[in-house]
Amino acid sequence: METEHKFQILILDDEPIVCKRLKPALEKAGYEAETFTQSAMALHRITEKEFDVVITDLKMEGLDGMAFLTEVKKRYPKTEVIVITGFATMDTARQSYQKGVFDFVAKPFKLKEILDVVENALAKRTATEKGNVP
Amino acid sequence: MNVLDRLKSWFSFGKTTPAYPFAALFKKFQNILKANNDALELIADMGAKLSGDYVFDRQYILSSCAELSDQIYRLIVDLNTLTSRKYLELFNRYERIHQSIEEELAGKWILPQGDAVIAYEAMGQGLHELVGNKNANLADVKNVLYLPTPDGFAITTSAFRIFLEQNGLYQMIQQRLQQYADEAELQGAQTPQSIESIAAEIQNAIRNGAIPESLHREIAKAVRALQQTKRSSGLFFAVRSSAWGEDAEYSFAGQYQTILNVASDRLLDAYRSVLASAYNPSALVYRSRKGFQQHEVAMAVGCQLMIGAVASGVLYTMDPSADERDVALVSATWGLGAPLVEGTVAVDTYTIDRQPPFQLRSMHVVRKPTMLMLSPDGGTETRPVSPELENKGCLSSAQLQRLVEMGMLIERFFKRPQDIEWALDSDGKFFILQTRPLKIRSKTGSTTLDIAEIVKRHPVRMQDRGIVVQRGVATGRVFLLEDPDDLDGVPHASILVTHHTSPRLARVMRRIHGIITDVGSQTGHMATIAREFRIPCIVNTGMATRIFRTGEEVTLDATQNVVYEGRVEELLYYEFTEEDVFEETYEYRLLHRLLKRISPLNLVDPHESNFRPADCKTYHDIIRFVHEKAVEEIVDLENRRAGSSGQARELVMDIPLGLCVIDIGGGLLPQSDEKRIGRQDIVSVPMNAFLDGLERSGMWNSGPVSVDFGSFMSSMTRTMSPALSDPRNAGRNLAVITNAYFNLSLKLGYHYNIIDAYVSDQVNDNTAYFRFLGGVTDMTRRSRRAAFIGEVLERFNFRVEIRGDLVIGRIKKCPRKIMEQKLWMLGSLVSYTRQLDVQMHEDADMEKHTQLFCQQTLARLQEGTEASLLPIESQPP
């Protein structure tokens, strides 16, 4: 019997606790999640594999989140990106949307909130893959 | 008058008329009230993060603390503006608290002299950096779970640091290790000092180090305290290492020393010996490989009174090797447990069910010819076991039941299977000596648990309802609690489903696995206890009592806010395998510690002598203080403004309340200077709602209750607030109102109530505060009365705090209609309680009255709408 394809999610946040709390929640919801606290490692990973959804923080040391998500969208335009950040401003929100971000979730967030957004992002991606949405 | 003159006259003391127009001051007063509520809101918000329902990081903690500190500071500024700088001392208190918060955030902990030694019973939660993991866990077992552990004390990591510093050991250790690191790099070094000899040098230096005088004193003090409690001067201790650090337990387990049966006059040597063991060769190598910095070594030492053990052993709450995961494993031997832990002696082994009634599954009893016993003068010795015990099992199945039950409570609390060292004394009492997380191997040959698949097989009974008070996974049988009196009937290991949160549920907290309620507060007493015990808990679901039936098996995953049909044990195991326990993470503990300086309320009664700026220990105290003083001030200002006659008008009512009303902005219909007003003159929304409840609920019993203020006031020794002590207001109840605001100080019989409410069409601004303080009857009756009031308030969705005979209830952000109903209820409650003192003979009376009152009130309110009964979330905006 063919195993069902599980959606692949990449999480990048320089705070380990965010990764540690998100991963089990996503797994319980039926997704596979890989977590990174260093943007260099995350960058390397996306050269190896395409993810369905990428969740990334914006303000981090080293490569900043905006640059990372730009890179992701460049390689895989159909991968949906969700931005999480504790420094939510109108400006960063606007910038993110301009770069093609799917949605923006301000920290702190409830687990349910992020799961809902991931679900919506995946729905859009599935539709896109099937060619329903340009 | 120009600006400068105005400012000068404003900031000069001794003036009775303020230079600012009253309207401006009143606006300032309103700002203070709003800022007050905002600050309380932010504190509640921070507390809610401990539920585990939110993902937050250090940044959140930093920014909330910054925002809160700002708000508190501005509150103090505003109060001083309002009161012509009467409370400048508050700035000092603020600074102290602010400073300690900043230090906490910067990663330093405060090191006052006393923190070198802490007794176990005085150990609060989350002190891992100070007392080490082992001691911190024991403190939780002792003080939160109330399980028996040996008395004793910890010598902290800060004592360790002072010890190293004063003996010049930091540098010495640093140098030696640097040498070793350098020599290791230079392959061709001539005579590299081996790690063994470096370790020996360091250990020697530690063992011969001088104990700082202050530390010596603290240790002696702790020993003396124990000698007094135990009424014995011949005390013996187990001296154990308790290191701090993530890897501490796993890598160094067994490598640090434990010394048994140390006489109190040999404690200092034992202490140094245990410290020295942290610098044994393998520990040094391990640390250097892992890149541990020298300053990161933090050794605390625990000194536990020795238990004269008849039998001892180890309990694994889950068998780490078995494919079956529903058994616990006990090993036991006669006498002390050290040889068992070291693996040098034969032991009995038992497997027991992890579920109640904790039945024995299998046992393997071996011949035990020798045992380790305490030597009378210190140390231990091996002795032969008497012939009749050699082949006898150490524990009966009844004893095993008790032991495993304790173990499961500990496992649920730490959310990890536990490796527990226990001892049984000659009185048949079990003691927990030590507990730590148990490493479980994953099932051999299985792929990673596909938790999502497994979970899909179980129907969802309820999802995304209510508020998560405490995250976590629990399995068990539902028990639907209908009669709050029947707490004894609540079975062990059940998932409790009940209508509302209640402080009384604290009694069953230790034996239940989870809680789900229809209505209730996420910040009240019960919620706090649920978090203390880490019992998965969801409140305010609106429907739980309608959905679940007693006896059905469910799995409560409070982390995801789902309830599944049946026991999904895999979810429990999945939680066990999560990388970190949320409650043990740095962020959780940091927030928990910070909130200790922020949310506990110490200032309780404005009429007590301890209601001063100097007594503010937390931000919450400051908020409380500012609130009370602001109200006092505005009343004062109103009196002064109006001149000697005062603007307090007497309210004529059917009920002889003797109520005086001060209108500070649109609370009454425009009047000529009437000294008396009637109900029809009142515009204030909250006041009207309250008085309606008071007068028209039918609760007011016109029986013979003394309202002779003169005589009972003389029997009260408390000081009065300035407003009430003003001779013009003596013997009066006082209300301060605007069209939307209502502040009432009400003395009725022996009861003293304060109601403070703001009700407008802006939902977000609405708030009501109710404070009830008992009178001069005995404490038992007063506590019963308080419990009754607290219970009623909870049923009506207030956030409740009870302190002996003081009850505080708060509710906010309801639509206007709902707020009016709450105030109506408060009015009828005040009415009803007026009589209650003499009638509260027994606890059973309390329950009777709760039912009676609630029924009657609900009946009346239902004549309007039912909306006030629903949990707040499902009410229309």
UniProtKB/TrEMBL annotation, chain A:
<keyword id="KW-0902">Two-component regulatory system</keyword>
<keyword id="KW-0804">Transcription</keyword>
<protein>
    <submittedName>
        <fullName>Response regulator</fullName>
    </submittedName>
</protein>
<dbReference type="InterPro" id="IPR050595">
    <property type="entry name" value="Bact_response_regulator"/>
</dbReference>
<keyword id="KW-0805">Transcription regulation</keyword>
<dbReference type="InterPro" id="IPR011006">
    <property type="entry name" value="CheY-like_superfamily"/>
</dbReference>
<feature type="modified residue" description="4-aspartylphosphate">
    <location>
        <position position="57"/>
    </location>
</feature>
<dbReference type="GO" id="GO:0000160">
    <property type="term" value="P:phosphorelay signal transduction system"/>
</dbReference>
<dbReference type="Pfam" id="PF00072">
    <property type="entry name" value="Response_reg"/>
</dbReference>
<feature type="domain" description="Response regulatory">
    <location>
        <begin position="8"/>
        <end position="122"/>
    </location>
</feature>
<dbReference type="InterPro" id="IPR001789">
    <property type="entry name" value="Sig_transdc_resp-reg_receiver"/>
</dbReference>
<keyword id="KW-0597">Phosphoprotein</keyword>
UniProtKB/TrEMBL annotation, chain B:
<dbReference type="InterPro" id="IPR013815">
    <property type="entry name" value="ATP_grasp_subdomain_1"/>
</dbReference>
<keyword id="KW-0808">Transferase</keyword>
<dbReference type="GO" id="GO:0046872">
    <property type="term" value="F:metal ion binding"/>
</dbReference>
<keyword id="KW-0460">Magnesium</keyword>
<dbReference type="GO" id="GO:0008986">
    <property type="term" value="F:pyruvate, water dikinase activity"/>
</dbReference>
<comment type="function">
    <text>Catalyzes the phosphorylation of pyruvate to phosphoenolpyruvate.</text>
</comment>
<feature type="domain" description="PEP-utilising enzyme mobile">
    <location>
        <begin position="491"/>
        <end position="560"/>
    </location>
</feature>
<dbReference type="GO" id="GO:0005524">
    <property type="term" value="F:ATP binding"/>
</dbReference>
<keyword id="KW-0418">Kinase</keyword>
<dbReference type="GO" id="GO:0006094">
    <property type="term" value="P:gluconeogenesis"/>
</dbReference>
<dbReference type="Pfam" id="PF01326">
    <property type="entry name" value="PPDK_N"/>
</dbReference>
<dbReference type="InterPro" id="IPR006319">
    <property type="entry name" value="PEP_synth"/>
</dbReference>
<keyword id="KW-0670">Pyruvate</keyword>
<comment type="pathway">
    <text>Carbohydrate biosynthesis; gluconeogenesis.</text>
</comment>
<feature type="domain" description="Pyruvate phosphate dikinase AMP/ATP-binding">
    <location>
        <begin position="129"/>
        <end position="444"/>
    </location>
</feature>
<dbReference type="Pfam" id="PF00391">
    <property type="entry name" value="PEP-utilizers"/>
</dbReference>
<keyword id="KW-0479">Metal-binding</keyword>
<dbReference type="InterPro" id="IPR036637">
    <property type="entry name" value="Phosphohistidine_dom_sf"/>
</dbReference>
<dbReference type="InterPro" id="IPR008279">
    <property type="entry name" value="PEP-util_enz_mobile_dom"/>
</dbReference>
<dbReference type="InterPro" id="IPR002192">
    <property type="entry name" value="PPDK_AMP/ATP-bd"/>
</dbReference>
<keyword id="KW-0067">ATP-binding</keyword>
<keyword id="KW-0547">Nucleotide-binding</keyword>
